C-alpha cells in the first residue's frame, strides 16, 4: 500500500489564457476543452497540469498520485487524521481523500507515463585530474539549441499549517517516506522505491495552497537556458539559477500568473530504496539553497491564504511605490 508517483496537479484559476500562455512558453503542450486546459510534457501522454477557469482566484484544487492497494489506503487515511470524500463533480476516478488540513488528493491505481529516456551527449564536466570530455565543445552557439523541453513533472511543493503533521499523514497513510526536512518549516517526501529525492514537499504557512511545480529537463545548462528564456517572456519574478542543498538539484524558478512558481530542475538526488536512506534535519540556512541569487521577498508567500490574490497585491505595491 503506497504512493508510487506523482501524476498531476489541478488549479482553479480566474482566466485560462494567461496560464495557457505561461505554461506553453515553459514548453508544455496545451489541450483546451471548454473551461479546462490540460498541459502535458511534449513526450508524455498524461497531462501534468490541469487548469480549471472561472474561479474567483487561483487555488489548489487537488493533487493526483498513482498508488496501489487503494482499499487499504482508505482505511489508513481514516486512521491518520484524513478523510475519504466523494469524487468532486467532473472528476470521477480513484480514491479521493482530504489530508488533515483539508487538502484534496486523488489516488488512482494506474501506471504513470514511462520515464524519459536518455538523449544526446551525457553532461560531462572536466575537472582537475578527471578529464571526461574529450575533443568536443560543451557549449554550442546559442542558435543550436531548441527551447527547453520539460520531460516530466518531478515534484510539487504545497503550503501546510503544520508541516510535520502533513509529513506524518503522507508517510503513515499514503506509504511515502520523509527524505529530509528543515525543522518544522519545510519537509520533503519521496516514494519508497526508485524516487526522486522529493515528490511532494511542504512549507509552513497559515493555510494550505500551491507553491510550485518542478519539471525535469536534461541537464543544468537547459535549466539555465530555459529559465532565462521563460523569464524574458513572462516578465515576472524569478529565482535562480542556483543549486539546492536539500535534494541537490539545480533550479531556476519563474513566477506564474498567480504568484506561485514554475521550476526547471536537473540532477536531483535519487533514492533507489528508501530502506537505505536516512533523513537529515537541516538547519534553516540550508533550507532553500546552497548557492544562488537572493531569494525574492514573496518566494514563500502563500497568496491562497492571503486576503488579496497575487495580481491585486502587485497592484497595491505599484500604487504605493
Ligand atoms: Fe522544487
From TrEMBL:
Pfam families: Glyoxalase. Residues 5-110, 152-267 form the VOC domain. Coiled coil: none annotated. SUPFAM superfamilies: Glyoxalase/Bleomycin resistance protein/Dihydroxybiphenyl dioxygenase. It comes from the Bacteria. This is VOC domain-containing protein. It comes from Stakelama tenebrarum.
Amino acid at each position: 500500500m503506497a504512493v508510487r508517483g506523482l501524476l498531476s496537479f489541478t488549479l482553479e484559476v480566474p482566466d485560462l489564457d494567461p496560464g495557457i500562455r505561461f505554461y506553453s512558453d515553459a514548453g508544455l503542450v496545451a489541450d483546451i476543452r471548454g473551461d479546462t486546459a490540460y498541459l502535458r510534457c511534449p513526450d508524455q501522454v498524461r497531462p501534468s497540469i490541469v487548469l480549471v477557469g472561472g474561479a474567483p482566484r487561483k487555488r489548489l484544487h487537488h493533487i493526483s498520485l498513482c498508488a496501489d492497494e487503494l482499499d487499504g489506503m482508505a482505511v489508513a487515511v481514516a486512521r491518520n487524521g484524513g478523510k475519504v470524500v466523494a469524487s468532486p463533480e467532473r472528476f470521477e476516478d480513484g480514491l479521493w481523500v482530504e489530508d488533515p488540513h483539508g487538502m484534496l488528493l486523488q489516488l488512482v491505481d494506474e501506471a504513470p507515463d514511462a520515464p524519459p529516456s536518455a538523449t544526446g551527449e551525457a553532461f560531462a564536466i572536466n575537472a582537475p585530474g578527471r578529464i571526461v570530455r574529450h575533443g568536443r565543445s560543451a557549449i554550442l552557439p546559442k542558435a543550436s539549441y531548441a527551447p527547453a523541453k520539460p520531460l516530466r513533472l518531478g515534484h510539487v511543493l504545497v503550503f501546510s499549517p503544520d508541516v510535520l503533521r502533513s509529513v506524518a499523514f503522507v508517510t503513515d497513510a499514503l506509504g511515502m517516506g520523509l527524505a529530509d526536512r528543515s525543522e518544522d518549516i519545510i519537509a520533503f517526501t519521496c516514494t519508497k522505491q526508485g524516487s526522486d529525492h522529493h515528490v511532494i514537499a511542504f512549507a509552513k504557512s497559515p493555510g494550505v495552497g500551491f507553491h510550485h511545480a518542478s519539471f525535469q529537463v536534461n541537464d543544468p545548462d537547459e535549466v539555465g537556458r530555459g529559465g532565462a528564456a521563460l523569464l524574458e517572456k513572462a516578465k515576472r519574478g524569478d529565482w535562480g539559477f542556483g543549486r539546492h542543498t536539500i535534494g541537490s538539484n539545480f533550479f531556476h524558478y519563474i513566477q506564474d500568473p498567480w504568484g506561485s512558481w514554475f521550476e526547471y530542475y536537473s540532477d536531483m538526488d535519487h533514492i533507489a530504496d528508501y530502506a537505505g536512506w536516512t533523513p537529515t534535519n537541516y538547519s534553516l540556512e540550508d533550507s532553500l539553497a546552497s548557492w544562488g541569487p537572493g531569494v525574492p521577498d514573496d518566494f514563500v508567500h502563500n497568496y491562497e491564504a492571503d486576503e488579496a490574490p497575487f495580481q491585486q497585491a502587485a497592484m497595491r505595491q505599484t500604487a504605493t511605490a
